[in-house]
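Lecture 7 notes: from sequence to structure.

We start with a single chain of 418 residues. Read the sequence below before looking at the structure.
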Amino acid sequence: MPATQQVHPSARAGAVGFLLAGLLMGVIGSLTVAWRYELDKDPRAVGLHFLAFNASVLLFGVVAQALLRKLSMKAVCFASCVIAALGFVELTAAAPPAHTAWRIIGVAIVGCAAGGLLTSLLHFIRPYYEEDAASVINFCSLMFGMGCLLVTIAVASIYPFLQVRWQTLGLAAIPLVLLPVVLRVVTRKADRSKPDKSARRSGSLRDLRSPAVVLFSLLLFFQFGNEWALATWLPLFLIHRLGVSPESAIFALALYFFALIAGRLLTQVLLRHMSHAKLLFVSTFAAMLGYLLLSFTGSAIGAGLATVVTGFAFAPIYALVAENIGHRFDYEPGFFNGIFSLAVTGGMLMPWVLGFAGYYVGMQYVLIIPAFGTVAVLLLVLLIMLEAKLMRAGSEPALVGGAPAKPKAATTSAGRPN
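Now the structure, written as tokens:
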């Protein structure tokens, strides 16, 4: 895709939905510091917050998928925004010194809202994905990351002045404020396309048997796990490892989200001047290096540099792998929601596992585990590239009845020959 290609105006109008989804997904890492978990909280209990969030995202994603067969996107988005507001209100009431279990329940409620909203948005972008997959994916990722960045900056800025209960109460107002805009957008395009459920279901089942889908799903599982290990544990890690102040630790998390966003923008330039395979190798190696530097640095400056390196390194990986296999599948919201759900599972299971690592081996070692996760990503990238090469070789003209058969031409998501 040319870097200058514009996203459909109606797709841009849906930016607020992905912005809100990023806010819901990105707030937990900073809230753990606002709740003063760095003082005396068992890391295993902290990990339970992420596990509860993940389970609720997956559960309500499945529920929303079923509801969308009977209800409109407007109804599901309305319910998701209201649930998000209720979740933050519950977290306001559950602020310390209330028992930790109440905050885990509140986090799970927010996760339900995120699951419903993301499922609806995957349905919403279907027509635009079919027109230009690459630009839509990149744009949605940027807006999602922007939501994570803004909510982290907000919590860090308010932290010295307000108690955490007032922070979460303020967050409860955001879904309600954005609700009219979200409803206006999804109502405008809700009935643009009604897919043939039977045809798409059979296509999705064929896709699930594809080695490329299996490899891509595993890669997303590990890649999201690596990304969200930093998005959830970075502030607590910096406080324990380097003794930085809580507000500085949250701002470091904002720096990580900023690096991810800037890296995705920079990727669009690099793709025109650098081998895509080489960029993949450099990115995965730099991510592993960034994690190792972060684990062993002894200064705040070194930690900041390692955070930026890791964020930049993570940015191109998903887009580059999606480019390799994206043209092989038709867009079906339920199918892609399943793929995304697996990625979210990796994104939240890794922080849960790191809670046990922090308890048994010490907080200073929790980020070494994701460093090895980048090795798994590198191996999966190699396997995906090998599988794609074998598929291209298998599409060469073959002799059928003494005459060369005409292979089907693979096309990109934009409809151009691959």
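Strands lie at 399-400, 403-404. Keep this in mind for problem set 3.
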